[in-house]
Amino acid sequence: MKTLGLFRHAKSDWNDQRARDFDRPLNKRGRKGAEVMGRHLVEHGCFWDRIIASPAVRVAETIEIGSAAGQINPQVRWDRRIYLASSATLLDLLREQEGDPRSILMIGHNPGLEDLIFDLVPDDGTCPLRDIVEQKFPTAAYAVLKLDIDDWGDLAEGCGRLIHLKRPRDLDPALGPEAAD
Q1: What is the largest CA-CA distance in the chain?
Q2: Mutual orientation of helices 28-44 and 57-70 as an angle, nearest 10°?
Q3: What is the pLDDT of residues 74-125, one digit of tens each?
Q4: Backbone CA torsion sign across 109, 166, 96, 74
Q5: Which of 31, 114, 148, 158 would you label with 4, given CA atoms 20 to 30 Å apart?
């Protein structure tokens, strides 16, 4: 059995139209969301053997702010392949993880993270959390999956159970979709 955490970066700033997508920072709401979710990740009590993340600015800032709020100093492996990756790319990246970590936290972007949940968790009507993800896996959302595998190389579609899902609005209603940036 393996554990996979998926954490989408917090809300980014679209004000500078000249900035490359990769270089977009977090906006005010995103910084607050990263802080709230950083504390939640620590309070949730799941400790990660490995953390892999996209090196995009908005991901790096999410990690920096979340880590400060949770009072942790995680060791992050940056992997550019996560940046705007498809589910298929993320599956391949997970399958090639060496050293056999029991748990991996991946921090990145949609639609890849959301699609990865859909690929790993069967759509059989038994998972109300999956139904929530079908509505939206918003910025700064955090999901935890239990995978019925012994080795990351065996990762296959349908092998997971979604056991935890938190969105910023679940912890602070002011961070819901109606909130201003």
Answers
A1: 46
A2: 50
A3: 999 999 999 999 999 999 999 999 998 999 999 999 999 999 999 999 999 9
A4: positive
A5: 31
